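Working notes for the structural subgroup meeting. M.R. asked for a predicted model of this chain before we commit to crystallization trials. I am recording the input and output together here so anyone reviewing the notebook later can reproduce the run.

Input as submitted:
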Amino acid sequence: MAHSLESVPWYGVKGIQMTTELTIGRLANEAGVNVETIRYYQRRGLMAEPDKPTSGHRRYASDAIKRVRFIKRAQVLGFTLDEVGSLLDLDEACACVETRELAAHKLQVIEEKLADLKAM
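Returned structure, recorded in token form:
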């Protein structure tokens, strides 16, 4: 029996969705948070809620992972969610100056808290 390689038109990438869109569960998992955290950020206006397609499952772009990680990192550094919202709203053209100002203010607040703790 002879073997041959023939092109099979239905085989290949057809039907495979090469996408970077994520479900809310996968987004939460990739970002290291809980699904309810994503929903909370949406209610707070820190993240946009994607439109719900006819399939019923919202899909998030892969850059949403970076946004969630940024929010969590800013919280770890002591920024409140309101302050994080301000950071996220900054125009990219002038973001460096404003970000430095917000960070300097936050550093001052933290240093004041440290001084208060040392005085105890």
